C-alpha cells in the first residue's frame, strides 16, 4: 500500500451517510472492482457467480424424447413389433403403418411414429401383436420444448447452485465463465477480549471472532481458518501490520471494534497510514452508527476493501447487512439485493433522523414482522431468535399494519431468509 506515515493534522469527519445511500455507494464500488471472470469446469463452480448469461448449445430436448416406457407406434393397431429403442441410441424410422418398437423413457422417438402407447395401457394379442389405445396427447417431449438453441436461460450475475450446474450440463456445457467467491479475512481488535472461558474481571468474551466468519460464509465468501486473527494488540503498529498482512491475500478485510476515536481506537490512523480512501465513514443508522468501508489499491493495481465493524456485537451485524452484503454482491458481479417487505404486527419506534434497523421475527405464512426482545447493541440474544431487520426510515415510526422493507439474515450459505 502507499505510505505508513500518518499526517499530523486531522480533517473534520464528513456527516454520516444515509443508510440507503451507503448501501448503494458500497454496491457501486464493489461492482466497479468485480472479481475477474474465469473459465471453470462445472464440477468446480458451485458457489461462484455467472460472469456471462447461461445459454443452451442445442434445443432442449435436442430430439423428440419419450416421456414413458411403452411402444412407439405408426398408424392404427394392432401393431407388429419390429424392434426396441433404448435411451442413448438413434432408432431407424418406422417406415410402415401397423408397426411398433418398444421404447424406454428418455429414448429418442423414431421418425414416422404417430403415437407412444404406455406399456401399462397395452396388451399382447394371441398372435404376438401389441394392441391398445394411445392417449390423445403426445407422450413425448418435442425438441425445443424447454428451450431453443442459443436461448438465454439465466443472466450474468446469477449465483451458481447445484440446480444451475445441472442445467448447464443438460445444455451441453463443460465449463462456464464465472467469478469466484470473494475471499475475506477478519481482524479482531481489543485487548479486553477473552477467546476462551467465561467473561469476568473486566474482560468480555469475544463473540465476533467466532461468528463473523460464519456470517461472511453465508454471504458467499471464502474464509479460511488462518484468515481470522486476533485479538490484535491495541497499538498503531500492530494494527497497520495486521491489516497489511490480511490485505495481501483477501479481497475484503473486516475488523471489529476501534471504529471511533478513543484512546485505543487505531483503525482510522491505520487506514490513513496505508493510504486508504473512505467509501463510507459512519452511517446514519441505529444501531451500528460508527461503521465504515475503506478502499485501497495495491501495488499490483488490485482493489481491496476494509470494512470496520463496531465492537458491539449487534451493531457489528448491522454493519454486515448494511455495508458488507451489498459490497460482496458487487464484487461477485451479482445484482444489488432487493429487500422484501413485511407488515408490522406491532409498532416500531423511529430513531429521529437516523434509519432504525429493528430486529424482527417473520411469520412467513401471514407475511408479518414481530419485534423481538433483548435488542441492545451489545446483546446477541434477540439476534439469535430473529430473521432480519425491519427498516424504519428517518423521521418516521412504524405503525401496526405498515408495510416496511426487511433486511433478511441469511439462513444458510446463499439462502435468503424470506
From TrEMBL:
Does the keyword section mention Magnesium? Answer: yes
Instruction: Write out the pathway annotation from the protein's UniProt entry.
Output: Cofactor biosynthesis; molybdopterin biosynthesis
Gene3D superfamilies from the xrefs? MoaB/Mog-like domain (3.40.980.10), MoeA, C-terminal, domain IV (2.40.340.10), Molybdopterin biosynthesis moea protein, domain 2 (3.90.105.10), Molybdopterin biosynthesis moea protein, domain 3 (2.170.190.11)
GO molecular function annotations of the record: metal ion binding; molybdopterin molybdotransferase activity
Cofactor(s) needed for function: Mg(2+)
The transmembrane residues are none
Which superkingdom heads the taxonomic lineage of this protein's source?
A: Bacteria
Q: Which residues form the MoaB/Mog domain?
A: 185-330
Fetch the InterPro entries from UniProt. Answer: MoaB/Mog-like_dom_sf (IPR036425), MoaB/Mog_dom (IPR001453), MoeA-like (IPR038987), MoeA_C_domain_IV (IPR005111), MoeA_C_domain_IV_sf (IPR036688), MoeA_linker/N (IPR005110), MoeA_linker/N_sf (IPR036135)
Function recorded in the entry: Catalyzes the insertion of molybdate into adenylated molybdopterin with the concomitant release of AMP.
Q: What is this protein called in UniProt? A: Molybdopterin molybdenumtransferase
Specify the species. Answer: Micromonospora nigra
Species classification? Bacteria, Bacillati, Actinomycetota, Actinomycetes, Micromonosporales
Amino acid at each position: 500500500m502507499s505510505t505508513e506515515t500518518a499526517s499530523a493534522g486531522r480533517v473534520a469527519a464528513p456527516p454520516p451517510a444515509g443508510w440507503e445511500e451507503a448501501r448503494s455507494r458500497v454496491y457501486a464500488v464493489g461492482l466497479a472492482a468485480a472479481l475477474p471472470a474465469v473459465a471453470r469446469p462445472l464440477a468446480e463452480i458451485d458457489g461462484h457467480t455467472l460472469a456471462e448469461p447461461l445459454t443452451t448449445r442445442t434445443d432442449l430436448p435436442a430430439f423428440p424424447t419419450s416421456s414413458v416406457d411403452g411402444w412407439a407406434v405408426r398408424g392404427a393397431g394392432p401393431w407388429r413389433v419390429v424392434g426396441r429403442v433404448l435411451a442413448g441410441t438413434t432408432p431407424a424410422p418406422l417406415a410402415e403403418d401397423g408397426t411398433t418398437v418398444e421404447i424406454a423413457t428418455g429414448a429418442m422417438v423414431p421418425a414416422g411414429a404417430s403415437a407412444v402407447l404406455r406399456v401399462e395401457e397395452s396388451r399382447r394379442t394371441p398372435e404376438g401383436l401389441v394392441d391398445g389405445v394411445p392417449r390423445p396427447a403426445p407422450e413425448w417431449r418435442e425438441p425445443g420444448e424447454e428451450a431453443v438453441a442459443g436461448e438465454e436461460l439465466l443472466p450474468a450475475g446469477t449465483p451458481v447452485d447445484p440446480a444451475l450446474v445441472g442445467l448447464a450440463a443438460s445444455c451441453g456445457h463443460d465449463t462456464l465463465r464465472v467469478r469466484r467467491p470473494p475471499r475475506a479475512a477478519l481482524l479482531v481488535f481489543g485487548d479486553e477480549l477473552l477467546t476462551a472461558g467465561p467473561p469476568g474481571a473486566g474482560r468480555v468474551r469475544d463473540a465476533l471472532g467466532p461468528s463473523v466468519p460464519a456470517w461472511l460464509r453465508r454471504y458467499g465468501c471464502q474464509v479460511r481458518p488462518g484468515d481470522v486473527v486476533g485479538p490484535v494488540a491495541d497499538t498503531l503498529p500492530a494494527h497497520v501490520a495486521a491489516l497489511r498482512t490480511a490485505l495481501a491475500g483477501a479481497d475484503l478485510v473486516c475488523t471489529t471494534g476501534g471504529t471511533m476515536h478513543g484512546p485505543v481506537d487505531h483503525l482510522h490512523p491505520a487506514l490513513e497510514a496505508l493510504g486508504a480512501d473512505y467509501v463510507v465513514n459512519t452511517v446514519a443508522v441505529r444501531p451500528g452508527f460508527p461503521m465504515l468501508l475503506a478502499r485501497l489499491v495495491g501495488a499490483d493495481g488490485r482493489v481491496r476493501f476494509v470494512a470496520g465493524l463496531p465492537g458491539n456485537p449487534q451493531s457489528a451485524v448491522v454493519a454486515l447487512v448494511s455495508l458488507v452484503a451489498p459490497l460482496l454482491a458487487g464484487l461477485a458481479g451479482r445484482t444489488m439485493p432487493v429487500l422484501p417487505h413485511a407488515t408490522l404486527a406491532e409498532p416500531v419506534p423511529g430513531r429521529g433522523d437516523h434509519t432504525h434497523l429493528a430486529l424482527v421475527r417473520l411469520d412467513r405464512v401471514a407475511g408479518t414482522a414481530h419485534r423481538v426482545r433483548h435488542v441492545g447493541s451489545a446483546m446477541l440474544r434477540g439476534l439469535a431468535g430473529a430473521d432480519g431487520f425491519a427498516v424504519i426510515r428517518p423521521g418516521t415510526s412504524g405503525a401496526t399494519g405498515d408495510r416496511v422493507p426487511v433486511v433478511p439474515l441469511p439462513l444458510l450459505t446463499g439462502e435468503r431468509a424470506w
